[in-house]
Q: What sequence folds into this?
């Protein structure tokens, strides 16, 4: 097993708003190993993006603030770095790409100039060398006629092309870790597949680790090595990708899996998890998932569950994890086929 | 989009705006007129037959004289028994001569010469637009005055927009106490009536300054009054731009706040700033006119359109020597109008809703 390159430990990121303290990230821990892909899965508002932004210390402040926790990159705590040193990490050792390729490139600069700026900044390359690197990067991310595309503006490119340019910018300095925040959500399905394939290829070629933030379990199944399922600011299940799909040990994970449409299955309506993500300013007592949980028991309403280790590398935050693991209980609430 | 309109695909945003501007007839005309005006101002010493301070004590308030076909003007002399009235000398003609030697001057303060485009042999004089109370040629003074009146706007804009962009940008991007400090001071400036503030600020400079110092003082005063409203608008724009994902992306790539602000946020306000600057220039021109009209601007004998207009404020001048009003008045009117028309055309050209460009 390869070494852990990035580890989030007990991270709490809160937003101090007029309606009260919003505990968007409330004690999140997960680990990313070199060369692997960790998928962080959850609904909107589960805190998965805020956790990702917290890693780069880019949470808008005010109102947001990282209250406590550690973010260990190669053993050093990023939260203890001076801002200037943190800037040397961003874009160089840890990079990030975003959901919306339409708006994540600056409309007033050419694609080539935006990539070149990053290498000029971090590696001190001359303008010509940086431009050459930009073209090389565009070639690497599979953009046809890169010499010409480098001189074009973002509005001249399609959404998929823009996402490739964004990836080229993020990877121009060969970072150790790429954080991809819903990189394919805004793209149509064929382009999604191409971008995922590209990310997988680049991960192999450049030997980097990928932290993939997504709500799409299909994407997870295709690309991830490990999965962290987040709900209401906490990681509720953390396991290898096969484990999660074969033996979900948290009712929320089971519900997510059950809501996926299956090939060959005849069903009038898709299954859903009833209810909504709770307001992070007022979490329910006990287990935060209990109001929506089909298998909740009395204990869930009063006592917050601890993290239970089911097997090596498989953790769950559920009182009934053992029953779920043993297969005597269906977390999605239906009868097992 | 890659399949965008063929004519504008492959063009930078500036290139597309240029094309749209060229397609706008009023905008093209206004742009051309502005170029001509600035060329006239730059070449003033060459185009003007006389120096701006060149007086003729025998020809106070001489009316304008027509140029006859064949290129000559009448020779005049003071009429006997009347004040400021002139009669033509029968049969005498003063032919216009081209590239005559005259008062020495320097092109843009560098290239020395003593040639003038046209002139007549002394002692006759040519007064295309008449003479003022000192017998100085209004046409020449108009050209020299253009140097002050046309540049005061550009230099003023340069100062006030630099201030407004930086302060507004910092306030919007950094927020917190910087925002509070900048915006409260902007509000203080905006709450004082502008003309009052201009007069008060002008009073802060010594009363007697050389014409060059007065020019600098005017520009500084006007720019100081002008930055606040721009800073407010820029702050608002920056507040919305900084939420754009490319700003977050730039930060995530390790760029410093200064770099993000200057390279990634402020350039996105460019289309607004260019239009706002064009439309703000007339304010500076009129500001100079206002100060000079009150006698706080450029001092005689140096010429500016403002002090030329200021010399025409008495009823007797308006009645007996109306060219003293019309010449600078028309120059100011044409310039201000042209800037407004050009600003409108620029706004249309830079409007993102007209991305296809072409037909207005």
A:
């Amino acid at each position: 097993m390869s070494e852990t390159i990035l580890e989030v430990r007990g991270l709490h990121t809160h937003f101090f708003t007029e309606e009260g303290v919003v505990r968007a990230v409330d004690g999140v821990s997960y680990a990313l190993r070199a060369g692997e892909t960790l998928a962080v899965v959850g609904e909107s508002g589960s805190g998965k993006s805020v956790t990702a932004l917290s890693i780069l210390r880019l949470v808008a402040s005010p109102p947001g603030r990282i209250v406590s926790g550690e973010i260990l990159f190669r053993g050093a705590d990023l939260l203890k770095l001076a801002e200037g040193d943190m800037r040397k990490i961003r874009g160089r050792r840890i990079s990030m790409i975003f959901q919306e390729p339409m708006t994540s490139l600056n409309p007033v600069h050419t694609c080539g100039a935006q990539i070149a700026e990053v290498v000029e900044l971090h590696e001190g390359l001359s303008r010509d060398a940086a431009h050459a690197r930009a073209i090389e990067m565009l070639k690497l991310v599979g953009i046809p006629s890169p010499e010409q595309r480098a001189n074009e503006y973002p509005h001249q490119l399609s959404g998929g092309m823009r996402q490739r340019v964004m990836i080229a910018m993020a990877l121009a300095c060969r970072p150790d870790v790429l954080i991809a925040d819903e990189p394919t959500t805004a793209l149509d399905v064929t382009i999604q597949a191409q971008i995922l394939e590209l990310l997988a290829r680049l991960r192999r070629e450049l030997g980097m680790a990928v932290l993939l933030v997504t709500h799409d379990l299909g994407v997870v199944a295709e690309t991830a090595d490990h999965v962290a399922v987040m709900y209401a600011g906490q990681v509720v299940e953390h396991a290898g990708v096969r484990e999660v799909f074969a033996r979900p040990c948290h009712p929320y994970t089971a519900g997510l899996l059950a809501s996926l449409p299956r090939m060959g299955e005849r069903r009038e309506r898709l299954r859903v998890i009833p209810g909504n993500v709770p307001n992070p300013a007022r979490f329910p007592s006990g287990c935060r998932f209990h109001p929506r949980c089909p298998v909740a028991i009395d204990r869930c309403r009063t006592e917050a569950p601890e993290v239970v280790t089911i097997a090596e590398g498989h953790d769950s935050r559920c009182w009934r994890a053992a029953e779920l693991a043993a297969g005597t209980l269906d977390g999605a609430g239906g009868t097992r086929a | 989009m890659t399949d965008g309109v063929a004519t504008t695909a492959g063009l930078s945003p500036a290139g597309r705006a240029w094309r749209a501007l060229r397609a706008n007839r009023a905008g093209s005309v206004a742009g051309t007129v502005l170029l001509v005006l600035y060329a006239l101002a730059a070449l003033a010493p060459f185009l003007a037959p006389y120096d701006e301070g060149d007086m003729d004590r025998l020809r106070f308030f001489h009316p304008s004289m027509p140029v006859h076909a064949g290129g000559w003007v009448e020779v005049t002399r003071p009429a006997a028994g009347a004040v400021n009235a002139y009669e033509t000398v029968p049969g005498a003609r003063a032919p216009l001569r081209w590239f005559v030697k005259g008062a020495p001057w320097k092109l843009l303060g560098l290239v020395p010469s003593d040639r003038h485009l046209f002139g007549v042999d002394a002692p006759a004089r040519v007064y295309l637009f008449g003479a003022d109370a000192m017998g100085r040629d209004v046409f020449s003074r108009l050209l020299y005055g253009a140097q002050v009146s046309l540049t005061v706007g550009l230099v003023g804009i340069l100062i006030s927009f630099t201030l407004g962009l930086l302060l507004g940008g910092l306030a919007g991007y950094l927020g917190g106490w910087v925002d509070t400090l900048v915006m409260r001071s902007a509000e203080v400036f905006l709450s004082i009536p502008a003309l009052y503030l201009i007069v008060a600020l002008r009073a802060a400079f010594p009363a007697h300054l050389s014409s060059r110092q007065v020019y600098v003082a005017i520009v500084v005063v006007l720019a100081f009054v002008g930055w606040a409203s721009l800073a407010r608008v820029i702050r608002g724009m920056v507040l919305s731009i900084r939420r754009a994902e490319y700003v977050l992306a730039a930060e995530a790539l390790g760029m410093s706040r200064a770099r993000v602000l200057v390279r990634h946020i402020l350039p996105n306000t460019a289309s607004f700033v260019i239009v706002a600057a064009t439309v703000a220039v007339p304010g500076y021109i009129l500001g100079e006119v206002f100060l000079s009209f009150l006698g706080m601007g450029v001092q005689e004998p140096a010429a500016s359109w403002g002090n030329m207009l200021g010399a025409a404020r008495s009823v007797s001048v308006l009645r007996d020597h109306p060219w003293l009003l019309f010449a600078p008045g028309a120059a100011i009117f044409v310039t201000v109008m042209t800037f407004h028309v050009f600003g409108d055309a620029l706004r249309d050209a830079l409007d993102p809703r007209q991305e296809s460009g072409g037909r207005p």
User: Anything to note?
Assistant: Chain B touches chain A through 27 residues (CB under 8 Å).
